[in-house]
Amino acid sequence: MRTDVEILACGSIKNLTAFKIPDTDENWCCLEWSVCEARERGAGLALVLPSGAELERFIQALERAHRALTNEPFPLSVVEASKSACSVAHAKYESAWSHMLPQQ
Fold first, then answer.
1. Where in the sequence is the domain holding 13, given as residue range(s)?
2. CATH for 23
3. Which domain of life is it from (predicted)?
4. Which pTM value belongs to this model?
5. Can you tell me the distance from the alpha carbon of 19 to that of 8, in angstroms, rounded to the nearest whole number?
6. Most confident by average pLDDT, 1-5, 41-45, 76-80, 99-103
7. Bridge partners of 16?
8. Residue 85 lies in a domain
9. Does a structural domain hold residue 104?
């Protein structure tokens, strides 16, 4: 059993209520659930992916799974990045780790 894995949140795709992406070329998304078990702070999770292509593949995979499990439309929305806490965190993350991320 791996001991270096930490589960931060657990939520069913069936309970996904929001999947937010920025209106810029930043490669983050925010997921929100109606029901979710999280270690801290409620039912949301922000993810930063290594590239825009990876974000697009993640969206497609999640959308397929959501469609297979529900009859609801996929809750994708585009948010104004300049007003999002995720965008601020992304900028800090990118500057701190830019030397370790793959070059695009």
1. 9-97
2. 2.30.29
3. Eukaryota
4. 0.76
5. 17
6. 76-80
7. 33
8. yes
9. no
